[in-house]
Design a protein that fits this description.
The protein is an alpha/beta fold. Helix content is 35%, strand content 12%. The chain has twelve helices and eleven strands. It has a nine-stranded parallel beta sheet. Strands 10-11 form a two-stranded antiparallel ribbon. Helix 4 packs parallel to helix 5 and helix 8 (224-235) packs parallel to helix 10 (266-279). The chain is globular. The N and C termini lie far apart (42 Å). Residues 1-21, 314-318 and 347-372 have low confidence and may be disordered.
């Protein structure tokens, strides 16, 4: 293992171009060995490399605040072993109907007033399928939230090309569809939907011109190699996800992962975030579920590692999340500021992602930064 790391450190032009004045190139040709070597760097060196790359592509003091609302809770027939919303497990979550358009738009107004600039809506089902009535309501929700000047994200399970196009026309900014873990470990977590099913939905979304939000969960009983495998899948997509959520398992009583999983520690989270930042330098890295299990100081380490977005509010789908005022205090303590909506979105063609930029990309203007 030491020889692999040593070789990596002797090849800065190949691996860690953050040591050079020119910003790190966005690459999609990473190998597992390269990503593993980065992940296993000495911790402080990894943080330094990630922080350097982060500063080349983003204002390191800007962190986007996002709000996630479960608009259809419980009653899912899939067997995701970490999920409280599955009908296969006895948990505290009870099935609820799809929320009304008015209730969702009111929640979006509150989120915007509290500083969120991206509003995400999630449903507990396997796929959109033929739910025409529900889909019509969701399209209306997207239109209404988009009209507030917020970025709009949905996570609705598997999606067809046609449905993705309709969501795009309604004003959807991004679509979340996580890979959860490595391809190898995935069958140990979920059997009702394949890895390739997930990749197909991502392809449908990308074809429609919607930004892709795709990441994973730590604490699913995976190995270090599985974390590397997840990052490898993400970093070698034809185009990197616009945002990469890194979730920490929140063990739920009644789910198999209550016993079979284990919440990650700050070092595992920070290593994964830092490696994601190095190999996907222009992507937003979102500190997502499980954040409240870490202290403000531990979260500061994750921001230093390259995280530049959080989910904030009272609830993250079915688990608790820090309240808006607690996050405000943390932002003040750390000297952080929010991002304006749409300030980081970009369109990169697959033909361009492997080539280094001819000149350093412009940083996001300090003037565009405002309370998020």
């Amino acid at each position: 293992m030491r020889s692999v790391v040593a070789r990596s450190l002797r090849q800065p032009s190949r691996l860690l171009s953050s040591c050079c004045p020119k910003p790190a190139a966005v690459r999609t040709d990473w190998t597992r060995e390269e990503i593993a070597a980065i992940y296993r760097l000495p911790f402080t060196e990894l943080l330094h490399q990630a922080s350097t790359v982060h500063r080349q592509h983003f204002d390191p003091l800007e962190v986007q605040k996002c709000t996630l609302l479960s608009i259809k809770t419980g009653g899912c027939n899939e067997d995701c072993k970490y999920c409280a919303q599955s009908t296969r497990y006895k948990t505290f979550v009870k099935p609820e109907p799809l929320m009304s358009v008015d209730a969702v738009t009111e929640a979006a107004r509150r989120a915007k007033a509290a500083g969120s600039t991206r509003f995400c809506m999630g449903t507990a089902w396997r796929e959109m399928g033929n739910k025409k009535g529900a889909f019509g309501k969701i399209l209306k929700m997207v239109e209404e939230v988009n009209g507030m000047g917020l970025e709009v994200c949905c996570t609705l399970g598997m999606l067809s090309e046609t449905q993705a196009m309709e969501l795009k026309r309604a004003g959807l900014t991004a679509y979340n569809h996580n890979l959860d873990t490595s391809r190898e470990h995935y069958p140990n977590v979920i059997t009702t939907r394949s890895y390739d099913d997930r990749l197909q939905t991502i392809a449908n979304v990308r074809k429609a011109g919607i930004s892709v939000c795709c990441g994973g969960i730590l604490g699913l009983g995976e190995s270090e190699e599985d974390r590397v495998g997840l990052l490898y899948e993400l970093a070698t997509m034809p185009e990197h996800p616009e945002s990469v959520p890194i979730n920490a398992l929140v063990p739920i009583e009644g789910t198999p992962m209550m016993e079979g999983g284990g919440a990650p520690d700050v070092f595992q989270m920070a290593r994964t975030i830092a490696t994601a930042r190095v190999v996907m330098p222009a992507s937003m890295v979102r500190l997502s579920a499980g954040r409240m299990s870490f202290s403000p100081l531990e979260q500061a380490v994750m921001f230093l590692a390259g995280a530049n977005s959080i989910f904030t509010g009272d609830k993250l789908l079915t688990t608790a999340n820090p309240a808006f005022d607690e996050d405000m205090l943390m932002f003040e303590s750390l000297g952080l500021k929010g991002k304006q909506p749409f300030s980081h979105l970009r369109s990169v063609s697959p033909e361009k992602v492997s080539a280094p930029p001819s000149e350093p990309p412009q940083r996001i203007s300090q003037q565009s930064a405002a309370s998020a």
